[in-house]
Amino acid sequence: MTEQLLGPRAWGKSCGRATLKATPDDFRVTEVLDIALSGAGEHLWLLLEKRGLNTEEVARQLARAAGISLRNVSYAGLKDRQAVTRQWFSLQLPGRADPDFSALWSEQLRCLEQTRHQRKLQRGAHSANSFFIRLTDLQADQAELDTRLQIIAAQGVPNYFGPQRFGRDGSNLHDARRWAGQGGYPPARGTRSRLLSTARSLLFNRMLARRVADGSWNRILDGDCLAFTNSRSQFPASELAPDDPRPAALDLHPTASLWGTGELASSGATAQLEQQVAAAEPELTAWLEGAGLEQARRILRLPIQGLTWHYPSTDCLELEFTLPTGCFATALLHELLELSSAPGGGLETEN
Predict the structure, then answer these.
(1) Which of 14, 110, 180, 306 could form a disulfide with 287 if both were Cys (CB 3.0 to 4.6 A apart)?
(2) Alpha carbon distances (Å) from 25 to 28, 60, 332
(3) In terms of pTM, does the model score above 0.85?
(4) CA nearest 114: which of 48, 212, 32, 211?
(5) Residues tagged active-site
């Protein structure tokens, strides 16, 4: 299922095998938040470290402890349960003192920072996620791995949505297809958003897979629409100067469609490829358009910032790197190794 959902590798066959997340400490994620918090206001911001808990569970605990509605608890992104993650939450508490959360703190959940701000935390407000990943039971040639990692550090990887976007054993995708086949939408807003994102992600991954297969995922074609790594600004490739250094610097990339209503921003052969992929899934594309989602774009190439690695032992590889929001560590791991998960160690969501 993973290979099918992520598509082909760009840099050759896997270098070997390893186990992902033998323990929660083997997968650590920290949100990078570039917001100057004022120290005053009706919103209480908390930087929490959690393990064995997912983001929504923590939000519910905070709401109960503060005596507020869950809708008044905000977070920037969802993070894995089976991991050690550091992420921000905000609680809207107009005219109220800081609640006593001491009963919540444990080995599973602790507070690293607490302050006030005038505004609530918005989804996607963090600028990046920093990762520490330990892969155990490693069966691979270190020289081959080192060569592959050097290529990835210099040239990036295909920006696939990770398998966790599609649910355990593809459950989200199965549910999205069922709703699309019925022509309806889940009544719960969160479920509706999750399944629509799943359908969009499948189509994007197939477009990207086609570009990986023909070797153009990291090359700019005439009909491409280009976008920056950390900006939603985009423009047609025809406007790019031949000597522009930003594509080579991994700051500017070709994109593919996140399907919705309206005209494609691409043209020519690029638009034709995207239309062919969408036409192969008529129920999903009609379902996305019926939901009122508008055409958007996602970069095809994922630059890996600050990638470092070492081997604590011959059967263990440790990686550290930073990714833009909305991107998946599994896209990098996919280019390295065939992975198995320890019992209960499957990935959920990273963004």
Answers:
(1) 180
(2) 6, 24, 19
(3) yes
(4) 48
(5) 80
